[in-house]
Design goal:
It is a single chain. The chain has 346 residues and is an alpha/beta fold. It has 13 helices and eleven strands. The strands form two sheets. Strands 1-2-3-4-7-8-9-11 form an eight-stranded parallel beta barrel, surrounded by six helices. Helix 3 links the parallel strand 3 and strand 4. Helix 6 runs parallel beside helix 7. The model has no long low-confidence stretch (mean pLDDT 96).
């Protein structure tokens, strides 16, 4: 099972932009020294308290300050940009990093982000699928043409090509139930973020739908399943319970209220009001049971092993600071405990 670290590049209240970047880069530097396989970056827009609007630029900075860690995008929101430009930038990063890019893509979760870029949310699925096809062609064909609903062009030769042959590993981020069979039919590995919709116990049937669609579509090999999970590792059960509590409560209240704001929004799938009510109705102990992996090294290792075996995971992405309230010293301590004491047990 592949292991990687997920960062949000938060800017807690009262801190500067420079302090926000410096704190997260300190975690990257520590991860490099600990031998962490990969660091994964989201893409956030119009989201106060986070400075991760340009993951490609941040990943390039990470590549310049490290030698071995791989940079993952989890995920780049394809409908927000032009696919040819995205293909050029990602291929350039892959070249500059000597082939260390992991390319995770998605269509975006919240409608206001699409509206901010003047791309209707109702078009996000179509734009995503066309963009994904175009990027793959740009990377693997000397020149190509494309005729779609949203993009059309003739005889493009995109340079540079990626360093990895035939292209960087690609995976699709999933946050909704309907995306599992769709992505299975497309034949891409998946990276699941369960925070908005799913508990751990609810994931098995959806992953099975993904695997079934994969095989029915005739794809070779076995599908790959990754899961993003918040972790916190401490020396005692008491610290593992109390240290991250404030951040977790802040996060699920913020998430629930944001989801609720789209309860009457059209052109979306899922029941936003029901999802919001469920999130806001959860207590901290519910979150500990259903959404995170907090505890001592032994407890966290046991939890991850259970998830790996029950869900057939091939990748585990651990989120360092759910809710962005932990001091940097506690984040670093948790990261060190995870890699020095949990990883050997896995």
């Amino acid at each position: 099972m592949q292991l990687g670290m997920f960062l949000e590049f938060p800017r807690p209240a009262g801190t500067s932009y420079r302090e926000a970047f410096d704190s997260s880069f300190a975690l990257v530097d520590e991860a490099e020294s600990l031998g962490v396989d990969s660091v994964w970056l989201a893409e956030y827009h119009f989201n106060p308290g986070r400075v991760l609007s340009s993951p490609i630029l941040i990943a390039t900075a990470i590549a310049a300050r490290t030698e071995r860690i791989r940079m993952g995008l989890a995920v780049q929101c394809l409908p927000l940009g032009h696919p040819v430009r995205l293909a050029e930038e990602a291929a350039t990063l892959d070249q500059l990093s000597n082939g260390r890019l992991e390319y995770g893509v998605g269509r975006g979760t919240f409608p206001n982000v699409h509206e901010g870029f003047n791309t209707p949310f109702a078009e996000s699925r179509g734009r995503f699928e066309e963009s994904l096809e175009i990027i793959k062609k740009a990377w693997t064909e000397e020149s190509f043409s494309f005729e779609g609903e949203f993009f059309q062009f003739q005889d493009l030769c995109v340079e540079p090509k990626p360093a990895q042959d035939p292209h960087p590993p690609m995976r699709v981020g999933i946050t909704s139930a309907e995306s599992f069979p769709i992505t299975g039919r497309m034949g891409y590995p998946i990276l699941i973020n369960p925070s908005r919709v799913f508990t751990f116990d609810e994931l098995a049937e959806h992953i099975e739908a993904y695997r079934k669609s994969w095989h029915e579509a005739g794809h070779e090999g076995e599908p790959e399943v990754g899961l993003r999970v918040p972790i916190y590792v401490a020396e005692t059960e008491e610290k593992a319970y109390s240290d991250p509590k404030e951040g977790a409560i802040f996060m699920y209240q913020r998430l629930g209220n944001r989801v609720m704001s789209y309860a009457e929004y059209g052109a979306t799938t899922g029941d936003w009001q029901s999802e919001a009510g469920r999130i806001l109705g959860m207590e901290y102990d519910d979150w500990l049971r259903d959404k995170v992996a907090y505890g001592t090294p032994d407890q966290v290792a046991e939890r991850i092993s259970e998830l790996r075996d029950s869900l057939g995971l091939t990748q585990f992405i651990y989120e360092i600071d759910l809710g962005n309230q932990l001091p940097l010293e506690l984040q670093l301590n948790s990261l060190r405990l995870f890699n020095r004491e949990v990883v050997p047990l896995l």
